[in-house]
Design a protein that fits this description.
eight-stranded mixed beta sheet, 325 residues, 30% strand, alpha/beta, FAD/NAD(P)-binding domain
Length: 325
């Protein structure tokens, strides 16, 4: 049986951030992930200046494609609001692999299935044993299923579904565009250019409200393709991939003894723009701090907004979730 002081289940941003901080503190840590990195990952790949600060990342030192936006374009029906704001985009295929390698942690490709308590320890599939366990495996994290299903149940009204595609494209508009509530969509769609000739386009919506309307997300996806070709001259292949995750809900029951939930496993995506990378990284670092320093694992201070929590953030929160807590 393989043993480590800490096992991190999931090698994405939350898991890598936790692992890096643990390794630097001299803790014996092992990262398990079912995929071999680099691996494809559906995600708009939008990162904020706070992400760079939390990671102590200088874009000049990042070895892969990195693009900065000086403006964001918000579209609401006929209203077009260009906003001066520094934001960035990366390709998750590159970013996640780089973060995991930078962490310096031991990694093993393993699809964790069965997790059991053994006194104060945890045993995974009868093969791995640890004192502390960090669940960083995304929405379908096995740590959440095994140890937190009853204490931290999913709030279905906060579930988001998406369709998106990342493809090579000679894009001409270097800014990020976001369209809100088009054709009654309970969500928004996006156009996110990336460095070195890549483009990510997608659409996301609150799952329950979409179902209550009797609509299929693919209907809105096809409308988006037409709009993108008309506005940007971009022909998007009609081959999207989809996934689901949860925006920020209750965060009281995210620790159980030596087990922690982070990132999408804890449902931390922001409630205004449904952005998950920043909260994932910060929650992973907080889990590591709780282990190394014995500090409380409190995710209330992990931001629930991407736009600063002001009037715009509060309005988007209400428009997306309609007051669900």
């Amino acid at each position: 049986m393989h043993s480590a002081e800490v096992i991190v289940v999931g090698g994405g941003p939350a898991g890598s951030a936790a692992a890096q901080r643990l390794v630097r503190a001299g803790v014996d840590v092992l990262v398990l992930d079912r995929e071999r990195f680099p691996r494809p990952k559906l995600c708009a790949g939008w990162i904020t200046p706070e992400v760079l600060q939390d990671l102590a990342l200088d874009p000049a030192d990042y070895p892969h494609g990195f693009l900065s936006f000086r403006r964001l374009h918000f579209h609401l029906k006929a209203l077009h609001l260009p906003v001066t704001a520094l934001q960035h985009s990366i390709r998750r295929f590159e970013f996640d692999a780089w973060l995991l390698e930078r962490s310096g942690a031991r990694t093993v490709q393993h699809n964790a299935r069965q997790i059991e308590r053994d006194g104060d320890a945890f045993v995974i599939d009868g093969e791995f044993r640890c004192r502390y366990l960090i669940g960083a495996g995304g929405t379908s994290c096995p740590v959440q299923r095994a140890l937190f299903r009853e204490s931290a149940p999913r709030v279905r009204a906060l579930q988001t579904v998406t369709l998106e595609l990342e493809f090579e494209c000679d894009w001409q508009d270097p800014d990020c565009h976001l369209w809100f509530f088009q054709a009654g969509l309970p969500g928004y769609s996006w156009y996110v250019p990336k460095a070195r000739g890549w483009l990510n386009v997608g659409i996301g919506a609150m799952a329950r409200r979409l179902k209550d309307r009797g609509e299929d997300l693919h209907q809105h996806w096809r409308r988006l393709l037409v709009a993108l070709e008309r506005r940007f001259g971009v022909r998007v292949p009609d081959t999207p991939g989809g996934y689901s995750y949860y925006v920020r809900g209750p965060v009281e029951a995210v620790r159980s003894g030596g087990a922690f939930l982070t990132g999408d496993a804890a449902g931390l995506a922001t409630r205004d723009l449904c952005e998950g990378i920043g909260p994932a990284i910060r929650s992973g670092q907080r889990a590591a701090d709780a282990i190394v320093q014995g500090s409380a694992f409190d995710l209330h201070a992990v931001t629930g907004t991407s736009l600063g929590g002001g009037l715009m953030s509060r309005w988007m929160d209400w428009a997306f979730t309609r007051g669900v807590h």
